[in-house]
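Page 42, continued from yesterday. The earlier attempt failed because a stray header line got pasted into the input along with the sequence. Redoing it now with the clean sequence only.
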Amino acid sequence: MSAAMAQVPIHPGLFTLPGDPRGTHLLAARCSACGKYHFPAGTTCPYCSAAECTEAAIGAHGTLYLHTVVHARPPGYRGPVPYGFGIVELPEGLRVVSRLTEPRLEALEPGMPLALEVAPLFVNDAGDEVLSFAYRPANGAAA
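This time it went through. Structure tokens are written below.
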């Protein structure tokens, strides 16, 4: 009998993990002084330098701002190619750089609604599924 494959985040603190009661979200920080969000989360606000920031679950949905498709595997990337890559505008006022699940350039267009997903990207040398976040077309038309 084989043990279940462990799931580990590609980097701790970037997104909620499967089963989190908050649902699927990016983990940002919100400044208590100026009220702005920043991602990835940090303890000091990059806008006003205040040190009073708290974790906030954001980005479940967004809108595609800019995009391209990557056909050649960049150094260190172990996921599938081709893949979409773009800037996603979030309702919380941020723009984040993200992998997109849609690899067809003709299926992507600025302004399209997107939904966040957390899913396995690759299996690491220890045999764990490495989870990462990406945005998919909100209409369900992922590749």
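Notes: The mean pLDDT is 93.
Reminder to self: strip header lines before submitting.
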